[in-house]
C-alpha cells in the first residue's frame, strides 16, 4: 500500500515538471510585445501638439490622461513589433526613430487655470569609446603594429636622449669654484726680526704671537754674496731656528747694485766690450753726464771709474747700479734668488723696486711740477727732480714676471715675491692686467693713521682705504698654486705708525683688513699687546667671512669714526670700528645706515683703551648707538638681514 502511494506521488511530480517545461517552450515561441511611449506624431494625431493647452468644456476641466495626451482608450500605447520596425519590414522613418527616444513630460500650471505641457528629449548618452572586442580586431593590423613599434622605439630613444643630456649638462655645466684656501703668507701675520738680536732669542715671542713667517733683512751689500760661506751659514741658522716651529722665513734683499769688489764689476772694468760691461750704466770721459743725483748722499750720482769713464752710483760710494734690463745683470739676480730658495727661504722681498730699470741713454731730469713740488727743496735736493730716467721705467712688469715665475717654480707654488716699499704706480708692474707680484705694498692707510685725530681724518681714511682696494682689485695676480685671485696687500706698520693710535687699537683695526699684517716684533712687545688678543684675531682671520667675504668701509653718521665690515653669505658678519677722537667723553656712534647690518651687534673683542661700563665680550649693543671710548677699537659680529 505504501509502495503504490509512493509511486503515484512520483508520477504526479514528473507530470508537473513536463507540463512546466512545455509551457515555457510555448511562451518562448510566441511573439513578444514591446511598448514605447508616445512620440510627437502620436500626440499630434490625437489633436495635441507639444504646447497644446487643455481648456475646460462646459465649465469643467478636461483632465488629461496620465501620459499627458488626449488619446482614446487603447491609444495611449501602440504595439510595436521588434525594435520599432513595422511588420512590413520597411525601414523606420526619422519620426519613428525620434519616437523611440525617452520623453520628459512637464505640466506647468498658470494663474488663469490653464496648463502647459512641455516635452523634452533626455540628454544623449555620452560617447563611451570602443569596446575591447572592437579594439582587438585591430590588434594584428600591420599598420597599427608598425605604429606601435615606432612609438615604442621613439619613447625609449627620447628617454635615453634625455638621460644622456642630463649627464652632459652635469658634466659640462660651469662649476662653482671652491674657495681657494689662503697660503701661509696670506694668513699671516709676518713679523720683522730684529737683526741685532739672536734668532733663538726671538723665537719664543714669534711663536707666542702666532706668526706664520718671519722677515729677515739681509744687509744690502750681502745681496750678491749669498753663496759665500759666511752668508750661507747665517741663512741656514735662520731657517733651521724657525723651521722647528713651522715658521717660514722671508728675506729682504737689495738687488739694485753691487760693490766694487764684485766679480761682475771687475770684469766690466777690464773688458769694455763684454756682456759684463753692459750690465752697468756708463758715460764716456770728457762728456758731461746728466744731472742725476745720488739717493744716499749729496751730489751727483756719477762716479769716476778706474777706466776713465763715469759709472752710475745712486746708492752711495763704491756701490754701482746694475742695469737689470741686460741679460748679465738679470741672470745675476736670478742666481741669487735660486740660492736663497735652495737654502729654505720661502719668500723674497725686493727693495728699491722702482729703480731696477734705468734709461742708459737718458738725458737731464726735469724739475717737479710746482703743484707737486715741495717748496722748501732746491735743485741740489733729490726730491726736486722727477727722476723719470731712473724710476718706474717701462719693462718693470716683464722683469717681475720672470722673477715671480722663478720663485713659484723653485718652491712649487709655496713661496712668494714682493717688495719692501709702496709701489705707488701699480700699472708699471703689471702685464696685460696682471700685477706681477704676490703681495704688493700700496695705499695711504698707514700715513692717514699717523695723522691722528684731525677733523676729517676719518673721512680721509675711509676715502684712502676704498681707493687702495678699488685700485688694486682692478688687477689679477699671478697664480701660484697656493692662493690666487686678487692681489693680497701688505698691511705694514711700525713704531712710528703708533704716534697717535696705540698699538692695541692699531692691531685690532688692522688685522681684519684684506691683506697680511706686517710689523716689527717690538710693536707688539713694547706696545703691551696681549698674545690672547692676537690669538683671537687670528681665529677671526681663519673664518670664511674674512678669507672669502666682502669688504666695505664706512664712517658713522657724523663722520667721526671709521668702520668696516667683512661678510660672506651664510656666515656671521664682522663689524670693526675705530674711534680716532681723543676727547675724554664716552661717545656713541650711529652706524644704522649700513645696508643689511641689522639692529644689534654682539661684541667679540675690545682694545686696551676700551673702558665703557657694562660692555664687554658677548654684550649686545644697538647699531645706532655703538659706545666707544676715546682712542679705542671694537670688533662685533652681526647677523645680516639680507
TrEMBL record:
One Gene Ontology term, aspect cellular component: apical plasma membrane
Gene3D superfamilies the UniProt entry points to: Glycosidases (3.20.20.80), Golgi alpha-mannosidase II (2.60.40.1180), Oligo-1,6-glucosidase, Domain 2 (3.90.400.10)
InterPro entries (alphabetical): GH, GH13_cat_dom, Glyco_hydro_b, O16G_dom_2, SLC3A2, SLC3A2_N
Domain of life: Eukaryota
Pfam assignment, any one: SLC3A2_N
One function term, GO molecular function aspect: alpha-1,4-glucosidase activity
EC numbers: 3.2.1.20
Alphabetized UniProt keyword annotations: Membrane, Signal, Transmembrane, Transmembrane helix
Residues passing through the membrane, by range: 149-171
Name under which the protein is recorded: alpha-glucosidase
Organism: Anopheles gambiae
Amino acid at each position: 500500500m505504501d509502495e503504490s502511494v509512493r509511486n503515484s506521488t512520483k508520477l504526479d511530480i514528473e507530470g508537473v515538471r513536463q507540463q512546466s517545461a512545455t509551457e515555457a517552450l510555448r511562451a518562448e515561441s510566441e511573439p513578444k510585445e514591446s511598448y514605447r511611449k508616445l512620440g510627437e506624431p502620436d500626440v499630434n494625431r490625437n489633436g495635441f501638439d507639444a504646447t497644446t493647452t487643455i481648456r475646460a468644456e462646459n465649465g469643467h476641466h478636461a483632465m488629461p490622461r496620465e501620459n499627458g495626451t488626449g488619446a482614446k482608450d487603447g491609444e495611449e500605447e501602440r504595439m510595436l513589433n521588434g525594435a520599432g520596425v513595422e511588420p512590413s519590414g520597411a525601414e523606420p522613418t526619422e519620426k519613428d526613430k525620434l519616437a523611440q527616444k525617452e520623453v520628459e513630460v512637464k505640466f506647468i500650471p498658470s494663474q488663469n487655470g490653464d496648463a502647459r505641457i512641455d516635452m523634452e528629449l533626455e540628454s544623449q548618452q555620452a560617447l563611451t569609446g570602443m569596446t575591447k572586442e572592437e579594439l582587438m580586431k585591430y590588434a594584428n593590423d600591420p599598420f597599427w603594429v608598425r605604429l606601435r613599434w615606432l612609438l615604442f622605439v621613439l619613447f625609449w630613444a627620447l628617454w635615453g636622449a634625455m638621460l644622456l643630456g642630463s649627464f652632459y649638462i652635469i658634466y659640462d655645466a660651469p662649476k662653482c669654484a671652491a674657495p681657494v684656501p689662503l697660503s701661509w703668507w696670506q694668513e699671516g701675520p709676518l713679523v720683522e726680526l730684529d737683526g741685532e738680536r739672536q734668532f733663538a732669542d726671538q723665537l719664543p715671542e714669534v711663536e707666542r704671537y702666532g706668526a706664520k713667517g718671519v722677515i729677515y733683512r739681509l744687509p744690502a751689500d750681502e745681496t750678491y754674496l749669498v753663496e759665500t760661506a759666511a752668508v750661507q751659514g747665517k741663512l741656514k741658522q735662520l731657517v733651521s731656528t724657525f723651521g722647528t716651529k713651522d715658521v717660514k722665513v722671508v728675506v729682504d734683499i737689495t738687488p739694485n747694485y753691487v760693490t766694487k769688489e764684485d766679480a761682475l764689476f771687475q770684469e766690466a772694468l777690464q773688458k769694455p766690450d763684454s756682456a759684463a760691461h753692459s750690465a752697468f750704466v756708463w758715460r764716456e770721459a770728457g762728456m758731461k753726464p746728466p744731472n742725476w743725483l745720488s739717493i744716499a748722499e749729496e751730489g751727483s750720482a756719477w762716479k769716476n771709474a778706474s777706466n776713465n769713464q763715469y759709472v752710475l752710483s745712486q746708492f752711495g760710494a763704491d756701490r754701482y747700479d746694475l742695469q737689470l734690463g741686460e741679460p748679465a745683470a738679470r741672470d745675476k739676480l736670478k742666481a741669487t734668488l735660486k740660492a736663497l730658495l735652495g737654502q729654505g727661504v720661502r719668500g723674497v722681498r725686493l727693495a728699491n723696486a722702482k729703480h731696477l730699470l734705468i734709461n742708459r741713454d737718458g738725458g737731464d731730469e726735469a724739475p717737479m711740477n710746482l703743484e707737486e713740488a715741495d717748496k722748501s727743496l732746491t735743485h741740489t735736493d733729490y726730491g726736486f727732480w722727477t727722476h723719470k730716467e731712473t724710476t718706474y721705467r717701462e719693462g718693470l712688469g716683464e722683469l717681475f714676471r720672470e722673477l715671480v715665475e722663478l720663485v713659484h717654480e723653485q718652491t712649487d707654488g709655496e713661496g712668494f715675491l714682493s717688495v719692501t716699499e709702496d709701489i705707488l704706480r701699480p700699472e708699471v708692474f703689471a702685464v696685460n692686467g696682471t700685477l706681477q707680484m704676490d703681495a704688493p705694498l700700496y695705499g695711504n692707510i698707514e700715513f692717514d693713521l699717523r695723522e691722528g685725530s684731525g677733523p676729517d681724518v676719518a673721512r680721509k681714511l675711509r676715502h684712502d682705504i676704498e681707493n687702495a682696494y678699488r685700485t688694486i682689485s682692478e688687477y689679477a695676480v699671478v697664480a701660484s698654486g697656493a692662493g690666487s685671485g686678487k692681489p693680497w696687500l701688505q698691511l705694514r706698520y711700525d713704531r712710528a705708525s703708533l704716534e697717535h693710535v696705540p698699538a692695541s687699537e692699531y692691531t685690532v683695526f688692522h688685522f681684519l683688513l684684506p691683506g697680511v699684517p706686517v710689523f716689527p716684533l717690538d710693536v707688539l712687545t713694547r706696545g703691551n699687546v696681549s698674545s690672547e688678543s692676537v690669538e683671537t684675531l687670528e681665529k677671526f682671520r681663519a673664518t670664511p667671512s674674512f678669507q672669502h667675504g666682502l669688504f666695505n668701509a664706512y664712517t658713522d653718521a657724523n663722520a667721526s669714526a671709521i668702520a668696516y665690515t667683512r661678510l660672506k653669505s651664510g656666515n656671521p658678519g664682522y663689524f670693526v670700528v675705530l674711534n680716532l677722537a681723543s676727547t675724554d667723553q664716552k661717545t656713541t656712534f650711529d652706524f644704522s645706515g649700513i645696508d643689511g647690518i641689522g639692529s644689534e651687534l654682539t661684541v667679540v673683542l675690545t682694545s686696551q683703551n676700551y673702558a665703557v661700563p657694562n660692555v664687554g665680550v658677548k654684550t649686545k649693543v644697538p647699531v645706532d648707538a655703538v659706545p666707544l671710548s676715546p682712542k679705542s677699537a671694537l670688533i662685533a659680529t652681526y647677523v645680516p638681514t639680507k
